[in-house]
Design brief:
The chain is an alpha+beta fold. The chain contains 12 helices and 8 strands. The chain is globular.
């Protein structure tokens, strides 16, 4: 890919929203006329904008998509740009901040599990806290002592429930302010800007992974719950930018490989767009092949897809494919 190609591709989202400067606006159509892949991506983004500008599912008025983009831009963290591993989290945070004004007067809307919109943001406050504390940030909500013999999942559930209960006694604006301040902290610490510092492995939520991967985990969860909120409100939330989506795909594949272990029936997993991995037993003949779209794969791993109905193509050993799909869906703690 050329530098020009990469530069134009970075502009496509803003172009779809009609938010480019005049010089940039002239460059995009010229490139689209020559580049089939960028033209396809531009059309997908324009369709997303059209959906954002359309009526709510309940018929109420909606803010123009350009206003949503402006909100996201205003919400971007200030200061130096973060490193590539933290960029998806920064973008996901900006996306949720842009959605927050739509929640005015609708904080009790049921969203997912038994959470309303207020509890969903409170959950993210609790979820981000794990990485924040590991990186030296103080918790935003006072923590009650937990029994030492709790498993990480039990401790996680207890802390999440405590934070949600605490936040339900406060105004949602204060919950958003604390979540936002904690997110800013995560995007300000050195680990968000220095890949070498982010390469060290830490244990969080049952997984010992590089800090960089934990940032991707935070991006994954923030996007999933922003989408949950959007669906509850009848709003279309665009998927992450392609480069960020692929970072989430690769993280999900790494975790899925760990979860399947070295003795699982080997399956060749292909994610549309050019990458593939053999999951399961190494050195054994591949028993099946499975192809999924990046978006569908991420939603499956995020607990928002059904192994029985996820769109994809599979050949070979049906049981081996089923094992991969079910294990992928079981990874979600979201």
């Amino acid at each position: 890919m050329t530098t020009e190609h990469d530069g134009v591709r970075e502009l496509l989202a803003a172009w779809a929203f009609g938010a480019l400067e005049p010089a940039e606006r002239r460059a995009v159509p010229l490139h689209l006329a020559e580049c089939e892949s960028c033209a396809a991506e531009a059309e997908r983004l324009r369709e997303t904008v059209r959906l954002l500008d359309g009526p709510r599912l309940d018929g109420a008025a909606r803010r123009p998509a350009a206003d949503v983009l402006a909100g996201a831009r205003r919400a971007r963290p200030t200061g130096p740009r973060v490193a590539a591993h933290a960029a998806p989290y920064a973008a996901a945070v900006a996306g949720l901040r842009a959605l927050v004004p739509e929640l005015a007067g609708r904080w009790t809307t049921p969203v997912v599990h038994d959470w309303d919109a207020h509890a969903t943001v409170a959950h993210l406050l609790a979820a981000d806290e794990h990485l924040a504390r590991l990186l030296g940030l103080a918790p935003r909500v006072p923590a009650a002592p937990l029994p030492a013999d709790l498993s990480w999942t039990e401790a996680w559930d207890r802390r999440t429930a405590d934070v949600i209960a605490h936040e339900h006694g406060r105004d949602p604006a204060r919950t958003v302010a604390d979540w936002s301040a904690q997110a800013d902290g995560l995007l300000t610490v050195p680990e968000a800007h220095d890949p070498e510092r982010a390469a060290r492995a830490v244990l969080s939520m049952g997984l010992r992974l590089p800090v960089a991967d934990h940032y991707l985990g935070r991006a994954f969860e923030t996007w999933i719950h922003t989408d949950d909120l959007g669906r509850a409100l009848g709003l279309v939330v665009p998927p992450p930018p392609e480069r960020h989506l692929w970072q989430l795909v690769r993280l999900a594949v790494r975790i899925l490989g760990i979860a399947l272990g070295p003795t699982a029936p080997p399956v060749l997993l292909s994610v549309t767009g050019g990458e593939e991995w053999v999951l399961g037993a190494e050195g054994e003949p591949v028993l099946a092949e499975l192809t999924l779209e990046p978006y569908d794969f991420c939603r499956l791993v995020g607990g928002r897809g059904d192994p029985d109905t996820v769109a994809g193509n599979a050949t070979g050993d049906a049981a081996a494919v089923r094992n991969v799909l079910e294990r992928a869906a079981s990874l979600a703690w979201l």
